[in-house]
Design brief:
mainly alpha
Length: about 210
């Protein structure tokens, strides 16, 4: 059975941490720096990667590396976003996608299907090993936040129509991108949303960081 545990939020502007407790007590803010051999200190994604690694959302790809330029698979993003928001995998996975297999992401796919985070790609398939596109990533993220009642607020002053490639956005991704663009979570690149482009592990880290510290 999946559950949701509200994650602490960090304000980079004020240097404060906000969290919910189940009882009164004394609490301390811990610091758990995590470094990867292939993440340079001056890389644009350095802070984001360190942030999600310190919180156990990702452990990298092995041998002390993060592989920031590697493409991100659909199953991997789903696992990362569910970890980020404290959604546990279904164990055992009673109802699942036909291609969920028996691996590290199996229970997460089952929970995502049950909760409505993902309907898959059709024919009861999720296509877990396929590189995820930007619009797929943002749609899964949006669905997760919507189910948890945590859709971001805020007005960026921008709309999907402001981007030169807005017509490339799939019908099923319009709602998600509209809300995330308006909230300032999705900012695009050089005036484009690049909805059908695949996503790197560095880009994923930055997306989660932007949302979790907002």
């Amino acid at each position: 059975m999946a559950f949701y545990t509200k994650q602490p939020t960090l304000s980079a502007e004020t240097g404060t941490v906000t969290f919910t407790t189940t009882h009164f007590s004394y609490y301390a803010v811990g610091y758990n720096p995590v470094r990867f051999n292939d993440v340079a200190g001056n890389a644009w994604y350095h802070r984001a990667v360190g942030f999600i690694a310190a919180r156990g959302i990702t452990t990298g790809t092995g041998d002390g590396e993060y592989s920031p330029d590697a493409s991100l698979k659909r199953a991997d993003f789903l696992v990362l976003v569910m970890r980020a928001f404290g959604i546990a995998p279904d164990e055992p996975a009673a109802d699942n996608f036909a291609d969920a297999g028996d691996t590290y992401y199996t229970g997460y796919l089952a929970a995502a299907k049950r909760l409505g985070i993902s309907r898959g790609v059709g024919d009861n398939l999720f296509s877990p090993e396929t590189p995820i596109t930007r619009q797929e990533m943002f749609t899964l993220l949006y669905n997760t936040l919507k189910i948890l009642g945590g859709l971001p607020e805020g007005v960026s002053g921008k709309t999907v129509a402001d981007f030169s490639d807005s017509e490339e956005v799939a019908v099923w991704a319009v709602e998600a991108l509209t809300r995330l663009v308006e909230a300032g979570i999705v900012r695009g690149s050089d005036g484009r949303l690049l909805p059908t482009s695949t996503t790197t592990r560095a880009e994923m880290a930055q997306v989660l960081y932007n949302l979790l510290v907002k």
